[in-house]
Amino acid sequence: MSEDFKPASPYRRYRNSDTDLESGIGRVGNGSTDDDDEGTSGGPFDIVRTKSAPIDRLKRWRQAALVLNASRRFRYTLDLKKDKERKLLLAKIRTHAQVIRAAVLFQAAAQGVDVPGSPLKKPPTPTRTGDFDISQEELSQMSREHEISALQQYGGVKGVAEKLKTSLEKGIRGDETDFLKRKNIFGSNTYPRKKGRSFWRFLWEACRDTTLIILMVAAAASLALGIKTEGIKEGWYDGGSIALAVFIVIVVTAISDYRQSLQFQSLNEEKQNIHLEVVRGGRRIEVSIFEIVVGDIVPLKIGDQVPADGILVSGHSLAIDESSMTGESKIVHKDSKAPFLMSGCKVADGYGNMLVTNVGINTEWGLLMASISEDNGEETPLQVRLNGVATFIGIVGLAVAAIVLIVLFIRFFTGHTYNTDGSRQFKAGRTKASTAIDGAIKIFTVAVTIVVVAVPEGLPLAVTLTLAYSMRKMMRDKALVRRLSACETMGSATTICSDKTGTLTLNQMTVVEAYVGGKKVDPPDDKSLLPPELTSLLTEGIAQNSTGSVFLPEGGGDAEVSGSPTEKAILQWGLNLGMNFDVIRSSSSIIHAFPFNSEKKRGGVAVKLPDSDIHVHWKGAAEIVLASCTAYMDENDGIQPIEEKVLDFKTAIEDMAARSLRCVAIAYRHHEGKDVPTNEEELSNWQLPEGQLVLLAIVGIKDPCRPGVRDAVQLCINAGVKVRMVTGDNLNTARAIALECGILTSDADATEPNLIEGKAFRAMSEERRREVAEKISVMGRSSPNDKLLLVQALRKKHVVAVTGDGTNDAPALHEADIGLAMGIQGTEVAKESSDIIILDDNFASVVKVVRWGRSVYANIQKFIQFQLTVNVAALVINVVAAVSAGDVPLNAVQLLWVNLIMDTLGALALATEPPTDHLMTRPPVGRREPLVTNIMWRNLLIQALYQVTVLLILNFRGKSILHLEHDNADHANKVKNTLIFNAFVLCQVFNEFNARKPDEINVFKGVTKNHLFMGIIGLTVVLQVIIIFFLGKFTSTVRLSWKLWLVSIVIGLISWPLAAIGKWIPVPETPLGELLTGKIRQQRNGGGD
Fold first, then answer.
1. Which of 552, 491, 1080, 390 is CA-nearest to residue 801?
2. Per residue in 310-331, pLDDT tens?
3. Coiled-coil regions in this chain (predicted)?
4. What gap in Å lies between CA 573 and CA 567, rounded to an integer?
5. DSSP letter at 903?
6. Class (C level, CATH) for 495-505+706-841
7. Considering only CA atoms, which of 66, 651, 617 is closest in space to residue 316?
8. Gap between the terminal Cα atoms of the chain
9. Using CA atoms, how far apart are residues 310 and 286, in angstroms rounded to an integer?
């Protein structure tokens, strides 16, 4: 790939060649920051930013993770092998397409036919298809091979349009009949997608858990031995109950995973549903990309995605980035010599109209998309860290299981394990081999089940569960998540760099003030106050120098204006002044255009009049256009030098800007026709004259602040998130809006460096920019590159979220920790570079995303606290009982049920808690903050200690406490163990409420609003009652009396007041891990002295 072409596409996804510094806010209270290099920091699970993370880092944590079921654990992470294969396949398909095209051209040349453009080559004989005079095959061949000769034979673009029964100006009729006819004959703009995984696939993957497989083997052996020794009637219970428990775990896991996948599937479909404008019946309407049909006329502008294959109808400075098809970042200019447009490519510059000739699978893009499988897997930083937590807990669990296994085996084979009647279970030389094997299998099964409970396989998957839930809910809050990691990273955001127009303001613009003819016109659309020549030039400039359009309904009625909000406001003002849009457009023609540029803040056109005169019209930021003017047109149509009035104009601009009006100037100049290139190639490179302009008008456009935006900004400030406004508008306009929104609190704040101009920031050294960036609240007259420089400076110490809508915002959106593109005004290029799309362009929706991001983190912490409590309690109870008594109170089936409550049901209940206002009163969570906080350690240790103490007392003294000494020994033992099991399960049910609010006394606040939580709690209790009352044979339990049920409930219930009392115990701010390592260092240092 030629390096010369790489800078040609300024908006392509930005890659920072410098060292990638990952920042995160440190502990609450000390404000420390992390500037460790991503590649060298911490262990394999210490990845704070998975956005563009190196492949070797991703491989490293996968290799370090302790995994029992790889297919399930890594389902929603990037499949590195498939991703590599996908890239190779993509390159192969692209090369194949290029080779086919080259072969066709070579063959044509060998036959003596000139390559594209030659009139000698005959196209296929036109075939009539239905009402159309051209077939799908002919269109496909022409587009695929880019055959200019065939296009010329069909009569050019106009001829193809006639054959497709399309008007180049008004598009297709657009009625239902015409629309369906085109779809039936030429196909729809969709391509075959690979079906999602079926439920049976998820079931199969759930079966591949290593420990569950071992348990199934053990169950089969136990079943065979049981039937052999006790007969089929009684002998199948032990093995059968384990098999049934494993089967239930597998089915519940598969159902949960399948529902999750359906949620992701629907969200992925939403991501691909691009909306764009088409011309139908003379009117511009917005449609889904899937509704584009052959014959449609599609207006294209910078940043758009070409929605289908087509031919250029007309365009100005139109440049296409074809890298998505060719793999090379080469910008291709489109004109009458190169009119073919390929689906999936992006508009890099200019604007124009295209005629759609092929859609869906008949396009090269469609073939490409149908050939590759879409692997949407992607790990998130939290997921990676949770794999680290799961690995650590799993190693501890394996060690505990190994100890239990060894101890129980030693006790069993040395004759120190006793039956309930006091007899030894194993006597060397006397016990039957089958009985010994059966005893050994039971011990092995218990050890394996401890591993199942100890290794929290569902912990990393809880992230995916809460993200799937949050993403679905965020759609309702007008936010579409494109990258999973952005959802959780938003919870750590410490600063938001927001655009002004459309995000903080309504984007409903109207011209409310105008200076025309050197004076203020009040009201601004009173045409009687304007001279005729000035009005004519002004309306000509408004109509021609615009990417918008005006549609006048045939039956009368108000004109329909389309375009960007600024364009619509100015076009509407022109209509109020008597502008006839269609007449002006048809009576003169644009020969060259300089599309609006966010760097230069202006756009212009050269217009050829019927008498061959040339008018150059410019429109843009008022002070910039004014600086290029040497004269102005007065109220008598006279041209006057601008020097005498320039101060008045500047004062008028400043006055309007101070009242938060967007100031736009309109100017023109006459140009000699002989100085304009006539050759198309020379004309495309011609620079529009920018100087010696005549000022026609300065208008002030009002764009009111969004209702509630001040409250949203204040909410961010309270949550420790600084809001910064970055706008291309005049500094005075930016200042006025910032004061109105609450970004600046007073006039005293509106001084440098709080308020700064883009060029001033740009001129600073990198070190100085880092210092100043901390203080900036408003940046006015900023270019996209200024925004990028600000993001780079802020990322050294902050987690940065950035909003953007333009094509040139793409580098900043990609560089930021979270890129937020605007759904209404945002270009497709901006959206593709973003992580989240704000569907209503509203800043309040950005704040909701912050809330959801914090909710994701908080929910995971709730689940961790709950799961670790169960882990610690279950492991300690079984280990202590096994070592001291040679028996475990919680058997394999009971532990599998506990695992189900803890893993799948617990995750569903706690990981789907909706966000609360309390989340927005905390500071942001640092990305290197420990997942298990000191508050969580306190809570879980209190609960685990309580559960372990009570249940071990019941295990060793239960018979005497419950007055069971005189009962049958076997029955008494079963009653005691059933009570332990029942109390343990109910402790988890009650503790689930405690886990909802780790740092609040009132754990019941809002609980009734979470129907899923209440449903799972209810289901758990009902199933526990069924197990105790009806499934005793399977779970080795007996029915409990109402008194013992009451005892179980009281044991569980005590966890509520205990949790409330525990929350009064203060905890140190320094994380427990740091305290321990600090003490170890001190001891080492002390020992060295």
1. 491
2. 999 998 888 998 877 766 667 8
3. none
4. 10
5. I
6. alpha beta
7. 617
8. 63
9. 19
Q: DSSP string spanning 822-855? A: ETTT--HHHHHH-SEEETT--HHHHHHHHHHHHH
Strand partners, 620: 602, 665
The four Cα atoms 876, 878, 880, 882 give a dihedral, to 10 degrees, of: -160
- Show contacts of 143-148: CB within 8 Å, 24+ apart: 143/309, 143/310, 143/311, 143/340, 143/357, 143/358, 143/363, 144/100, 144/101, 144/364, 145/101, 145/104, 145/105, 146/101, 146/116, 146/338, 146/340, 147/116, 147/121, 147/123, 148/116, 148/117, 148/337, 148/339
Closest of 49, 23, 27 to residue 930, by C-alpha: 27
Taking the C-alpha atoms of residue 25 and residue 109, their distance in angstroms, rounded to an integer, is 64
Distance CA 691, CA 328 (A): 37
For the chain, how many residues are written?
Answer: 1089
**3-state SS, residue 418:** strand
282: left (phi over 0), alpha (psi -120 to 50) or beta: left
CA distance 297 to 299: 7
Cα gap 1073→931, rounded to integer Å: 11
CA dist., res. 383 & res. 489, Å (int): 12
Any idea which architecture 136-190+290-372 has in CATH? Distorted Sandwich (2.70)
Place of tokens 């136990």: 222
| The pair of three-digit structure tokens given for residue 455, joined into one six-digit string | 């290794």
Q: What is the pLDDT of residues 655-707, one digit of tens each?
A: 999 999 999 999 999 988 888 888 777 887 888 999 999 999 999 999 999 99
Residue type, 922: R
CB atoms under 10 Å from CB of 635, counted, come to: 14
864-881 pLDDT per residue, tens: 899 889 888 888 887 888
Q: Which among 370, 327, 375 has a CA at the least distance from the CA of 81?
A: 375
Can you tell me the distance from the alpha carbon of 510 to that of 519, in angstroms, rounded to the nearest whole number?
Answer: 20
pLDDT in tens, 901-949: 777 788 888 888 889 888 999 899 887 788 888 899 999 999 999 999 9
Report the 10 Å Cβ neighbour count for 643: 9
DSSP-derived letter for residue 921 is G
In sequence order, which residues have a C-beta less than 8 Å from that of residue 77 and are 6 or more positions away?
62, 377, 378, 379, 383
What is the 3-class SS of 457-520, one letter each residue? CHHHHHHHHHHHHHHHHHHHCCEEECCHHHHHHHHHCCEEEECCCCCCECCCCEEEEEEECCEE
- Which residues contact residue 1047 at a Cβ distance below 8 angstroms, ignoring those fewer than 6 apart? 979, 983
pLDDT in tens, 1048-1059: 999 999 999 999
Question: Backbone phi, then psi, for 502, in 5-degree steps?
Answer: 85, -20
Domain 510-676+685-702 class, CATH top level = alpha beta
Active site residues: 499
Q: How many CB atoms lie within 10 A of CB 207?
A: 18
User: In CATH, which of 3.30.200.20, 1.20.1110.10, 3.30.450.20, 3.30.420.10 is domain 381-468+851-1074?
Assistant: 1.20.1110.10
DSSP-H helix ranges across 615-673: 622-627, 646-658
Distant-in-sequence contacts of 260-268, Cβ < 8 A, 24+ apart: 260/464, 260/465, 260/468, 261/196, 261/197, 261/202, 262/196, 263/468, 263/469, 263/471, 263/472, 264/76, 264/376, 264/468, 265/196, 266/472, 267/471, 267/472, 267/475, 267/480, 267/481, 268/374, 268/376
Q: Strand 778-780 vs strand 589-597: parallel, antiparallel, or unpaired?
A: unpaired
Is-contact 837 823, C-beta < 8 A? yes
How far is 1042 from 1030, CA to CA, in rounded Å? 15
With DSSP H G I counted as helix, E B as strand and the rest as coil, what are the percentages for the chain, rounded to 5?
50, 15, 35
Rounded distance, CA 537 to CA 522, Å? Answer: 20
The Cα–Cα gap between 417 and 406 comes to 13
Residue spans per domain, the chain: 53-59+71-94, 136-190+290-372, 381-468+851-1074, 495-505+706-841, 510-676+685-702
